[in-house]
Amino acid sequence: MTASTHTTAKARSLAVPDLSVAGAAVWLSLTVLLAALAYYFLGYDQGAVSVFGSDTHVHEFVHDARHFLGFPCH
């Protein structure tokens, strides 16, 4: 009984994307920027000081997420 190890080794290999250091830096920077903007948006919208005027829909929609991130209740 003979088995081919070539096909088994080839099936186990993972496809790793070809990502350069500059490309990784750009993706990491964009991710940090978007996360910072989301964090600022969640922290700024207090209900009384709302992003969209005196409307509290955004605040109520993200209320639990604000508490999860450590922002105090109004």
Q: Could you tell me the strand content as a percent range?
A: under 5%
Radius of gyration: 23 Å
Structural class based on helices, strands and sheet pairing: mainly alpha
Sheet having the most strands: none
Order of helices and strands: HHHH
Tally of extended strands?
0
Low-confidence stretches: none
The N- and C-terminal alpha carbons lie at a distance of 74 Å
The average pLDDT is 77
Helix count?
A: 4
Shape call: elongated
Roughly what percent helix?
Answer: 55-70%
Transmembrane segments: 20-42
InterPro entries: CbtB_put
Organism: Gordonia insulae
Pfam family, one: CbtB
Describe it for me?
- This protein is mostly helical and 74 residues long.
- It has a domain at 20-69.
- 58% of the residues lie in helices and 0% in strands.
- It is built from four helices and no strands.
Based on the model shown, name its key terms.
mainly alpha, 4 helices, transmembrane, CbtB_put, Cobalt transporter subunit (CbtB)
